Structures are given as C-alpha cells and as structure tokens.
C-alpha cells in the first residue's frame, strides 16, 4: 500500500480506505460505504479521482431513499416515455440548465416538490402535454407520442361505448 502526504498535516500517512459514512437528512440517517483517502496521523479525509463522483452518487442515492424520491433510472424512464429531451424537462420544470441532467445522472437529488410534479406528469400524459405546450417546448417526437396516446384513448373509449350499447 502506497502512502501519500496529507494535505492537512503533511505526514506521509494517507491511504485509501472504505469506511462507513452516515448521511443525515430531515432527522433520518443512512449509512453508506465510502471510498476515500484518510490520514492515519490526523484523520483528515479527502477524495481523489473517481472517489468524489462515487461519493456524490452514494450520498444522492441515500437522500433519494430517505426522502422516497424517484431514482435516476425512473427519471430517465419518465422522460423517455414521452420522448422528451433533458432540455425539454428543464424547460417544463422551469429549472436551470443541466439540472435535469444532474438528476438523471444521479449526482444531485431532486426536491420533494419537483418529485411530486414529475410523478404527476408521469401519471397523466395530458398534463404532461399541456405543460410541454405551456412551457413553449417544440418537440415533434414528443408531440407524436402524445398524439398516439390520444388516439389510443379514443379507441378504448369507443370500444367501451360499443360494448355498453351492445349490452342494451
């Protein structure tokens, strides 16, 4: 095992460790396994290379779990369900640039309010379409998906009506 110099105390005593790390939020806590650099002399913790990304992903996933938020994969599936682009979702939700991208990559958890809104959009394609149009999103692929949903719903409604009238 190669030891490195500590940024805090300059001792040649820093090595990589995998240790438990407690993530706390809103009175709840969850323990994750955290890969990081630790100084044996002073206890200073630092991250190198991919360790910081791994840490960010683990913390964001812990927060999603504690708060009952949609996972990054679920966010991706909702967006793809309607053939929307990440920028479209940002426009619909009135978020900053790359916000949806960070949520979907798992780096940053969405707020509880945003999560509830996204769930509503996922449940109701008519709401999603109205919000897309209200936000000024121009996406022909998404519009085709919404148009097909409407056609399918009309066909189902006509079939129900036919069956009901046939039973009279």
Task: Tell me what you see in this structure.
This protein has helices at residues 51-67, 72-81, 86-93, 99-105, 112-123, 125-134, 140-166; strands at residues 4-5, 12-25, 28-39, 45-46. It has 168 residues and is of the alpha+beta class. It has two domains: 4-67, Ubiquitin-like (UB roll); 72-166, no CATH class. It has a four-stranded antiparallel beta sheet. Strand 2 (12-25) and strand 3 (28-39) form a beta hairpin. Helix 5 crosses helix 6 (125-134).
Series of H and E elements? EEEEHHHHHHH
Helix content: 40-55%
- What is the number of strand segments? 4
The number of helical runs is 7
Main β-sheet, in a few words? Answer: 4 strands, antiparallel
Q: What topology, given as strand order, has the largest sheet?
A: 1-2-3-4
Q: Report the portion of residues in β strands.
A: 15-25%
- The shape is elongated
Q: Output the structural class.
A: alpha+beta
What's a concise summary of this model?
By secondary structure, this protein is an alpha+beta fold.
Question: What are the salient characteristics of this protein?
Answer:
single chain, 168 residues, Ubiquitin-like (UB roll), alpha+beta, four-stranded antiparallel β-sheet
Blueprint of the fold:
Elements (H helix, E strand, L loop, with lengths): L3 E2 L6 E14 L2 E12 L5 E2 L4 H17 L4 H10 L4 H8 L5 H7 L6 H12 L1 H10 L5 H27 L2
Antiparallel strand pairs: 1-2, 2-3, 3-4
Helix pairs in contact: 5-6
């Amino acid at each position: 095992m190669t030891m490195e110099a500590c940024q805090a105390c300059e001792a040649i005593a820093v090595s990589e460790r995998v240790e438990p790390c407690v993530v706390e939020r809103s009175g709840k806590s969850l323990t994750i396994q955290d890969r990081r650099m630790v100084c044996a002399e002073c206890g200073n913790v630092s991250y190198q290379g991919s360790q910081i990304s791994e840490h960010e992903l683990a913390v964001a996933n812990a927060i999603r779990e504690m708060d009952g938020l949609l996972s990054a994969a679920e966010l991706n599936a909702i967006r793809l369900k309607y053939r929307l682009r990440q920028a479209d979702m940002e426009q619909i939700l009135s978020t900053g640039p790359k916000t949806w991208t960070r949520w979907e990559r798992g780096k940053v958890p969405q707020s509880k309010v945003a999560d509830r809104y996204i769930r509503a959009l996922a449940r109701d394609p008519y709401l999603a379409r109205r919000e897309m149009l209200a936000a000024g999103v121009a996406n022909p692929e998404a519009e085709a998906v919404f148009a097909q949903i409407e056609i399918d719903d009309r066909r189902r409604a006509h079939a129900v009506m036919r069956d009901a009238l046939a039973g009279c």
